[in-house]
Amino acid sequence: MGNVLVIFTGGTIASGFLGDRKGPDPDVSRTLQGYVSSFFEKKKVGVVCLEPWGIPGLDSSNLDPGHWIEMTRIIESSVSEGTDGVLILHGTDTMAHTAAWLSLCFSGVGIPIILTGSQLTLDYTPEDVTVNLRGAAQVVCSDLTGVWIYCNWKLVQGNRAHKARAQHPDAFIPIGGLPLYFSPEWARDGEITDLHHPRGRMPYSLKKILDISPEQARKAGKGIRWLMCAPGVDPVPSGSEKIIGLLGFGAGNAPTSILDKIAVSYSEKEKPQIIACSQAEGDVKDPAAYHDVGIAGLASRGFDVWGQMDYPVEFIHALCCYSLMASPQSPGKILGKFLRKY
Question: What pTM did the predictor assign?
């Protein structure tokens, strides 16, 4: 008999209509726990259910790096004790951020870590709660490894996931990758013990992450500032950021006025890491492709500039948080493992 850890965090999947609006519902959470326990029992799989933030949990919009640390510790402890898979029920709003974070922490874990949720509550007919939950549970019993989001009959890698739809059940798309569609083979009756999950190595930097308190994680996250470019708008940096994510245009471009303000704000201060990002979702970004407006031009002014590559912004944000926790004095050591420096 194998063993699975199921983490209930909250979100729409654990919500119902409370008056005229949706909200976390303790009765729905208890229903889901019974459903999950029954599903794995029929497969002769042991299951441990945890609610780190109580029942019915938290809306995912309220989750932050401190919660990520708490979840990481729970999963790491369970993995070290020999669990065969992890299923996380999570709100869809920030599921891609959490998946990106976990992909950094458990890149070589050797077991499936699957996040799922729903866009509709159990009050709807039809609903996507039970469809996603059953599919994700089947994947946890499969030979797939790594961190994935399961939603609407498909899997998206944790470091490639982007929420593209606000209410439609097909909520997630991969950025810079391809989805993996549900395989009927996963639905066959079979015990999890039929599968062998070779244990991988945890990233060395995870050891330092596990020593950080939730409050320290939240403080690290506050060292990141996102500046979104829009025609006619000049966001101004505070001058105290450790990392600036500059969400520009096209290949990684920004108005020269914004680039000048960043340079002036740090002319006599320790300069932050600059992450050159784009509101264009597809393709590898090249912030050095254009003269004047290319964000990589800040490198000539003494900044360390990193390109987004073809990762989604959710992953970039998780990576920034991870780098400030694992290497607070030299976040570039972590950024350089994934991004190109200009």
Answer: 0.94
| Distance separating alpha carbons of residues 111 and 85, to the nearest angstrom | 6
Structure confidence by residue, pLDDT tens digits, 228-265 = 999 999 898 999 999 999 999 999 999 999 999 999 99
Q: Tell me how far CA of residue 260 lies from CA of 41, 240, 288, 289, in angstroms.
A: 61, 16, 16, 18
Residue in 9, 12, 72, 94 annotated catalytic: 12
Partners of residue 278 on adjacent β-strands: 248
Question: Nearest-CA neighbor of 118 among 50, 31, 199, 228?
Answer: 31
Phi, psi of 38 (to 5 degrees): -65, -40
119 falls within a domain: yes
The residue among 205, 231, 264 that closes a domain is 205
Domain extent, residue 324, equals: 222-341
- The pLDDT tens digits of the residues spanning 17-51 come to 877 778 888 999 999 999 999 999 998 999 999 99
Catalytic residue list contains 116: no
